[in-house]
Amino acid sequence: MKFSIYPLSYRWILYILLAVYAIVTLIPFLWALSSSFKPLSEIIAGDFWPHHFTLDNYRQIFLEQPLFLRWLFNSIFIAVCVTVLNLLFNSMAGYALARLQFRGKQFWFLLILAVLAVPAQVTLIPTFLILKSFGWLNSYQGMIIPGMINATFIFMMRQFFINFPRSLEEAAALDGLNTLQIFWYIVLPLAKPAIAAQAVFIFMGSWNNFLLPVVILFEPEMFTLPLGLNTFKGQYISYWNYIMAASMMFTLPVLCIYVFFNRYFIQSVTFTGGKG
Amino acid sequence: MSPAILGLGLFTIAPILFAIFLSFQKVQLLGGIEYEFVSFRNFARLATDDRLWIALKNTAEYVAIVVPAQTILALILAATLNAGIKGQNIWRILFFLPTITSSTVLTLIFMWIYNADGLFNQALAWIGLPTYNWLSDPQVALKGIMIMNIWSTAPFFMVIYLAALQDIPRSLYEAAEIDGANGWQQFRYITLPQLRPVTFFVVAMGIIGTFQLFDQSYIFSGGSGGPNNATLTVVLLIYQYVFRDLQLGYAAAIAFLLALIIIIVTLIQRRIFDQDPT
Amino acid sequence: MIYRCLQFFALLIASCLCIVSCQILTPSADQGISPLGQGDRPVTLKLGGWGSSPAEQRLFQKVLTTFEATHPHIRVKLETVADQYMDVLKTRLIGDAAPDVFFLDSFEAPFLMSNQVLEPLDAYLTPDFDLADFETTLLAPFQQDGILYGLPKDCSSLALFYNKQAFAEAGIAQPPATWDELLADAQRLTRDRDQNGKMDQYGLGILPDLARLVYLMRAFGGVAIDPQGKAAFASAAALKGLNLIVQPYQDGIAVRPPDVGANSGTEMFGQGKAAMVIEGNWAIPFLQETFPDLAFATAEVPRIQDQPGTMVYTVGYVMNRQSSHKSEAWELIRYLTGKKGMALWTGGGSALPSRQSVAQALHYDRDPLRSPLVAGIKYATPWQLGQYPAAIMNSFNNQFISAILAEQPLQQALQRAQNSANQQIQAAEQ
Description:
- The structure holds 3 protein chains of 3 kinds.
- Chain A is mainly alpha-helical.
- Chain A has helices spanning 11-35, 40-45, 56-63, 68-99, 105-117, 120-134, 140-144, 151-162, 166-174, 179-190, 192-208, 211-216, 225-230, 240-265.
- The model of chain A is unreliable at 268-276 (pLDDT under 50).
């Protein structure tokens, strides 16, 4: 039984509002999708639907770019590594901040906040110099290691764990489980929705990441998808047709990931009434 | 945890420490790196930089409008989608689309939509509202970016709220139902208080993200912050100093001023939302 | 405590595995960087540049392949920077990781030239390279204190593009030769065909961007920057020049792209929303491909004060001072800016050659569309703003738009922009 906060009679108004909002979110996306099937002149003319439907934009990107599959592989490989490492580290760190009573907890929290508050633009050149000194320019580890932990999601996981009923963990501790076991067997399964959300966000973040790779990846073979697809931009002329087709190619995988994890966001979690 | 802390230290803290060091230096970066200690001169320069104050004002206005709007929108969307309506999965995918699309692509799409003859003006005219030249009228340029950002960031926080709503023990609602609480009362007295830690996170992330607004104003203004400084933001200013003239020392000084403001605002809102300010 | 340690080691091992697997997967980048003496192994040069349309990318790759075929001891590795070219390049220069040879826009050249990161090229020049063949307006942007740091790969000047059909409709036989004629024609070409109170066609399309405007200031003796490199456009002369587009805009016979829902001057011209625009060579292939039905022609930019004037934009090849293969790098530059290489590249039609002899060989000086552009190169103002170009350009564009929208008087906007730019420059020089 799902709980409901709306009386049944208002439901139809709700559906209308949802539909209106869905249209608002969908139109820009549809517009880009339809543009990706138009020749450039039609995009400029600005009509919504294509008059001369063409696959030429996609053909140019796929067939004329021998490295397309390599870019796809690079992007997926990097995003998967980054996501797995992040899920592990962020969840543990967040749990530690929310539960463990170690000294300097307040310090760690402030540190995370400070890390988030400094904009990336100012740390880019120092990061570049550090990666260079490691010899990690133009490499996968240069992309993965700096991104393997993310202060935003440590913070997010902390906020989730704070709300968890402690009683379960206390019971488990009485049963003789150590902290790691409690974390692994009790806490993590309960945190599935938060972890699913985190997985989507981190994957998305790595997938869309542009600032770091554009600086540290030199060779076309090492490019990630956004870099490779961005080389269509002209100096004076913007080839919107290719840009739109490329951005569709680029958004699709993330959409798939989201659809896959989507079911975890609303899921009848196991500890219903766990506190009772 | 140790490798994580090591990673965090090496690639997150070290660049920041380096930037702190730079903020007290005059740096020559090209053709051999040279430093010259200038003590607080970079910070003294902050007070005399007119553009910084314009940027701070723009940014503050942006934060004050966007953060509450996107948080409330996200909460409404999440609560609605969680209320057992039909076809939840489809709605959730539809609503999430703007967040999946990268901000660069979205900004490009919006440059078309915000055109004088673009979709947005057509829609406004159809409802009978006044139309604007969203891209190049200083009066509305920042508002255009606000609308776009509220629309594209709210689904991100919606997902976080959706996940958080799952963690609220069902027993609380059952108990409330027995006590005869209606839907609104349950939302008001159970859901909202239970969401407080996550709301703290959502608002904090909103504050950080909006104070660091860059992509949209960069693309809309071609990097200049125009028209007439209407889209000049603090991070755009930092970017200009870092990459255009390589004045890393001064850029770092601005960055720390910004960081300080973000931390203070976040700590204030923590008093309001966070249950466990240990 | 034991589990903590176990946990730590497990993660450490996982991280190590991850790093190792990364190294295996990473292609060894340094194959070509061998000491010069290593005999027959070819040297790999890195060439840095930005992206372009697929057709241009193919053409450029073909030029490089031809180079490699004639210079078997050199391999060229193209490092395309996807976006923010100068930011990326500066970062890589700081980290000693920049390519051996790279593209450099004339606009950005003074900053790099004065920062000692470019190799002076004078010592490499030989008589058979025929430096005199280059237009002087294109070499000057890459010279500082008499030293040459770059060679222009190609260029484009601005010319007047006009819609032939619109001209015929308005009964105009000849393209305007002076700015006064241009404004009179623009008046006649501004039309509201369906009488709905909204213009369907404007006479002149303008871009309120300093990059397109410096020659207007110069027509009356104004300048964008003074010899010290400070902004100096808040002068009566510059004001007069800028008024040549501000006034028509405020009179409603000129229009900007966002006013008519376009993203560039070329687009609004192609759509017929502006009957005349002042654009560069890049517009020719774009218009021919995208608007095949459009009948258009070009003419030299109308004379102002009885003087010809236009802008010219050029991109040069420069050599990294840190390069460890300087003689090979020079061979590459010599080929790409030499008569053969340049003819191959500019023969594609997307840019004009910077050598007079190549322009003649390709018949661009007699081509009806391109000859006004080629003629303009000689008297054009090169696009360059000294060592702090961003401060000057951003301040100008920022304020000029609000002046053109009549939010503030032009005089005040220029003064504000100049003060802001010079404040920034002064702070940077401290």
